[in-house]
Amino acid sequence: MTTDKGRSKYWAEETKEENDFVEFKILNYPKYKSKIIEKKPQELFRLEYFGTDVTFKLFKTDDNGTDLYLKAMTPNDSVKNEMTAGWISVLMAMKGAVDFGIDLRNHNPERVWENGYLDN
Hints:
The protein has helices at residues 4-7, 80-100, and strands at 14-18, 21-25, 32-40, 44-49, 52-60, 66-73. The protein has 120 residues and is α+β, with helices and mostly antiparallel strands. The protein has one domain (4-104): Alpha-D-Glucose-1,6-Bisphosphate, Chain A, domain 4 (2-Layer Sandwich).
């Protein structure tokens, strides 16, 4: 979550972090800069992402595993359903990358949200 290399495995085609911002490149969408609000590698990553305050937290478990907590807060009620579907897509891609070393994203610029596809 907190490195360009890590994010490029499941979240964006590429990211570039610089001066407390992360620039995301996702398929054929315009690049988007997110403000990093808080960052503690291996523990916490919080940023502004498309008008949403997003927090990822990692917790060690008693069985030597890790739990991930994701909270995405937006004041815009009209985007909550789309936002929820988008984060589920990101989390599933993350699970594929972390647990199995595979990339579940489609990488096809024709198969995007606007055309009825999950495009993460």
